[in-house]
Amino acid sequence: MPSLKDLRNRIASVKATQKITKAMQMVAAAKLRRAQEAAEAARPYSQRMAAVLANITRAVGAGGDAPALMTGTGKNDVHLLIVATAERGLCGGFNSQIARFARDHARNLLAEGKTVKIITVGKKGYDILRRDFASHIIDRIELREVKTIGFANADAIAKKVIQLFQEGQFDVATLFYSQFKSVISQVPTAQQLIPAASVSEAPAEGGAIYEYEPEPGEILADLIPRNIAVQIFRALLENAAGEMGAKMTAMDNATRNAGDMINKLSITYNRQRQAQITKELIEIISGAEAL
Q1: Is a pLDDT exceeding 80 seen at residue 36?
Q2: HEC-encoded secondary structure of the chain
Q3: Does the pTM of the predicted model rise above 0.90?
Q4: Which residues are catalytic?
């Protein structure tokens, strides 16, 4: 049975923790609005980009001079997984859900006899995946020092991926991130970047006929690398919004749990204090009667 002093110290410690979690919840709520607006603003642009690429792809046709980034290498042996997570924790199962989704995909590929290479974007993804796939991680990118995610960050990642493709390091590249739905819902998502299969499957725009200058193949050679950077940028923004939403929910739960713990400890403290007072009164009365 802990002493009254131990209970007082424990109550004070939990109250201090409750203040911290409450402050973190408020900070996450303030950052969530900006992150959500940025993520929602990026969606129409990325979808429009996919529609434009779909039209140009149809103009090129299956036998056209499409760039390798769109058609791929013709093989399906080596897969590059780009796993984007948060840099920090304290956001519930946000990071573990993305890492688990990528880990299951990697295991399925390995079971099929494929070669898997992994690039982690975010410290938490690296920390989780290195336990099982340390030998498969070829690079890690951390954005801890970046205060605000910008297109330049995504463009640098895209250039690294394209360079690896041009060097023949992989055949298929897939991006893993968490799509922001709401404060309590973030959906782990996989998007194939190379070859641009998702682009060719995008809906066309109203059946209009376009004339392209320069040739469609030349446009695709410039547009597809930009589209890869745009999709990575959107994934980073979705992750930022999802992280703040998950952190706000997790800190709210932690604050509530701390309050419940304080109530239970206070009840235990009061009962023990009352028992001690009763014991002292009995001792005083017994001593007085003995006299």
Answers
A1: yes
A2: CCCHHHHHHHHHHHHHHHHHHHHHHHHHHHHHHHHHHHHHHHHHHHHHHHHHHHHHHHHHCCCCCCCHHHHCCCCCCEEEEEEECCCCCCCCCHHHHHHHHHHHHHHHHHHCCCEEEEEEECHHHHHHHHHHHHHHEEEEECCCCCCCCCHHHHHHHHHHHHHHHHCCCCCEEEEEEEEEEECCEEEEEEEEEECCHHHHCCCCCCCCCCCCCCCHHHHHHHHHHHHHHHHHHHHHHHHHHHHHHHHHHHHHHHHHHHHHHHHHHHHHHHHHHHHHHHHHHHHHHHHHHHC
A3: no
A4: 91
